[in-house]
Amino acid sequence: MKLTDEINQFLQNQSFTIVSSIDKDGSLHNACKGIVEIDRGGKIYLLDLYKSKTYENLKRNPRISLTAVDERTFKGYCLKGRAEIIARDKLDPRIITAWENKLTSRITHRIVKNITEVKSHPRHPEALLPKPEYMIALEVDEVVDLTPRHLK
User: Fold this and answer.
1) What is the rounded distance in angstroms from the CA atom of residue 39 to the CA atom of residue 45?
2) Residue range 84-125, pLDDT digits in tens
3) What is the pTM of this model?
């Protein structure tokens, strides 16, 4: 499913998203993931820093959703689809570079914000993140606009 420029831009501006997968007992598992790249054709690439619950869930069942909201604008989207797991050794070096650039940008943003406002965290958590374990390629099948109808 092709993503509109508006959705693409919205997602690119998010520092993280919530990814939902299905546990073996059928309940939902939610985790924060960062988008690295968005393909206009409807694929969204996310790096996962931990090979844990989400990884195990996606191996069993590739159904996944990605949710992003902006509380300031009351806008948001839920994208539903299928995930493909891409092993770390199969990652294109450009993807790792893109992730490192996003991380650098987040650290810079946090430093500037800490200088101009009250410091929100005693350290810079992004600087302590491990290297990605694998990548999730989400093939979007459906887009749900979460913006309240009266605000559209």
Assistant:
1) 8
2) 999 989 998 888 888 888 777 777 777 777 677 665 656 666
3) 0.82
Domains of the chain, first to last: 5-87+132-151 (2.30.110.10)
3-state secondary structure the chain: CCCCHHHHHHHHCCCCEEEEEECCCCCEEEEEEEEEEEECCCEEEEEECCCCHHHHHHHHCCEEEEEEEECCCCEEEEEEEEEEEEEHHHCCHHHHHHHHHHHHHHHHHHHHHHHHCCCCCCCCHHHHCCCCCEEEEEEEEEEEECCCHHHC
